[in-house]
Amino acid sequence: MNVYDGERMAEMMQEQGMHAAASREEADLVILNTCHIREKAAEKVYSDIGRLRRKDGSTPTIAVAGCVAQAEGAEIARRAPSVDIVVGPQAYHRLPSLLEEAKTKTKATDCAIDTDMPANSKFDILPDRPRQPRPTAFLTVQEGCDKFCTYCVVPYTRGAEISRSWSAIVDEAKALVDGGVKEITLLGQNVNAWTGEDDKGVMQGLDGLIRALDRINGLERIRYTTSHANDMTQGLIDAHGEVAKLMPYLHLPVQSGSNPILQAMNRNHSVESYLAILEKVRAARPDIALSGDFIVGFPGESDADFEATLDVVRAANYSQAFSFKYSPRPGTPAATMKEQIAPEIMDERLQRLQALLNEQQFAFNRGLNGIDTNILLERKGKKPGQFVGKTPWLTSVHVIAQNVGIGDMIDVHIESAGPNSLQGRVIERKAA
After folding, report:
1. Residue 390 to residue 379: CA distance in whole angstroms
2. 135-170 burial, b if ≥16 CB within 10 A, otherwise e?
3. Nearest CA to 246 among 192, 180, 316?
4. Which of 71, 170, 259, 406 keeps 20 to 30 A from 117, CA to CA?
5. CA neighbours within 13 Å on the CB side: how many for 401?
6. What is the pLDDT of residues 195-249, one digit of tens each?
């Protein structure tokens, strides 16, 4: 979602007559789009601000956007007086006016700040999407979160769950496809919580929206992320088996394999209900690749709780997954919980978890060795004539190909598998 927001901010600046600078030294304006999920990411913002100072002591106009801006507001200007603009993720449509306000800055501590969460949709104010330079694009359909997991700042920085309208999403998707996009990834903090009335006034869930996008000529692939287990409806599960353009890949975080820890996290699902969902999804789409998120070292996590997480990983058998050490975020209930876990214990647990996840990822890749599939070429590789494309399961394939270009869909035979990517050979089709 930060990538999507960054692209929209860049598009707004282009509407104002600006263009991307070749380097930060040449930039008149630098926008730092920030994340507040983990402490290290937040502190990195201040390091980046310091690195923007030029050799002559001057700085470009600096805007701090995103969730750190929302959470810290005027504190950013106090800690970093060189910052000119602070704008939250629900107010970045006001960036052009904030830039004008910043031009009136008379002293170092002056700063144009907007961290409001207005009721009106910023999407109605943002400019139309221009032609995209890539064959894949993100499309935000839902923002915010009402789940209030005890470790997470998203409800405080992104606000309550809001779904964009059916027509706005479909129109933006059509514009992206008309501009050359072949794969769209639908985005949301809880993307499968999306609901809205369709063009006939009928309430739909994410599965209905996906079926509508499936009818767009020229759109080849549909993905979505990130999902919450509590919003995984039967209709969405059925869509995985019935909508050909919906790729066989599901990112469904569980965070822990221990029911007591899940309860302390306020996840409102159990290990058993999570695994039951995975079983239903695999029944609908047997070849589906599964991905997840894990937090190790949550307050109170015992050795037995962690071993239970390893058991869930073995039961789910992921194609890839993301795992992190618990990071206490100010203002969240978990930050003040007793039994905070020692860093060295978190380190050891994370290493063990990641070793198992890496083993599963390599096994999944090896399982693709020898198959024929199609890939969407996304970029050039490092070798002459080499391209890199993604399989339906989101794995990268390196292939040497002639008379093709970025955005082409080609058929390949997978010849070898590595821990992180595959090697393929173009399947030559004989002329009829």
Report:
1. 10
2. bbbbbbbbbbbebebbbbbbbbbbbebbbbebeebb
3. 192
4. 170
5. 28
6. 999 999 999 999 999 999 999 999 999 999 999 999 999 999 999 999 999 999 9
Number of other residues whose CB lies within 10 A of the CB of residue 50: 11
The 8-class DSSP code of residue 57 comes to: S
Residues 258 and 393 in one domain: no
Last residue of a domain, one of 333, 349, 367: 367
The whole-angstrom separation of Cα 120 and Cα 134 is 30
- Nearest-5° angle of CA 175, CA 178, CA 179? 85
Domain count, the chain: 3
Of 347, 367, 387, the residue at which a domain comes to its end is 367
Which CATH number does the domain housing residue 31 bear? 3.40.50
- Tens of pLDDT, residues 288-343: 999 999 999 999 999 999 999 999 999 999 999 999 999 998 889 999 999 999 99
Cα distance between residue 296 and residue 319, in whole Å? 19
Cβ–Cβ under 8 Å, residues 216 and 405: no
Cβ 64 vs Cβ 32: under 8 Å: yes
**Alpha-carbon span 309 to 277, nearest angstrom:** 17
Residues 233 and 326 in one domain: yes
Q: Please tell me the distance from the alpha carbon of residue 372 to that of residue 414, in angstroms, as a whole number.
A: 6
